[in-house]
Amino acid sequence: MTMRALQIPESLLKRAEELAQEDGVSLDIWVTSALAQKIGVVETAADFFKRRGANAGKGLEHYLAMVPDAPTDPEDELPKGWTPQ
Questions:
Q1: How far is CA 67 from CA 56, 61, 76, 80, in A?
Q2: Phi-psi region for residue 15, left (φ > 0), alpha (ψ -120 to 50) or beta?
Q3: pTM of this prediction?
Q4: Based on C-alpha coordinates, what's the Rg of the chain?
Q5: CA angle 14, 19, 22 (to 5 degrees)
Q6: With contact defined as beta carbons under 8 Å apart, do 16 and 27 qualify?
Q7: pLDDT tens across 30-58, in order?
Q8: What is residue 51's predicted lDDT score, i.e. its pLDDT?
Q9: How confident is the model at residue 17 (pLDDT cuts 50, 70, 90)?
């Protein structure tokens, strides 16, 4: 196991110590558990958005094909000199 010193704001450290004591575990175990939970949430969210993004374009072509090929209405045109940011 690799040991590494972390710089944690005093207010967070104090609250983590209180919560660890309430849970009846050491601060090390409590922080390790909290970190594992956060990693799980982030990885789950990333996988979710990858799956959703993989299907995002499917079906879009169907709807785009329904749009008539017509010139842009004057009120829908971008202002002269406009560039995307």
A1: 19, 10, 15, 25
A2: alpha
A3: 0.56
A4: 26
A5: 130
A6: yes
A7: 999 999 999 999 999 988 888 888 777 77
A8: 83
A9: very high
pLDDT for res 49: 86
Q: How many CA atoms lie within 13 A of 43 on its CB side?
A: 6
Name every residue whose Cβ is closer than 8 Å to that of residue 17 and which is 6 or more positions away in sequence.
27
Confidence band of 15 (pLDDT split at 50, 70, 90):
very high
DSSP character string of the chain:
---------HHHHHHHHHHHHHHTS-HHHHHHHHHHHHHHHHHHHHHHHHHHHHTTTTTHHHHHHTS---PPPGGGSPPTT----
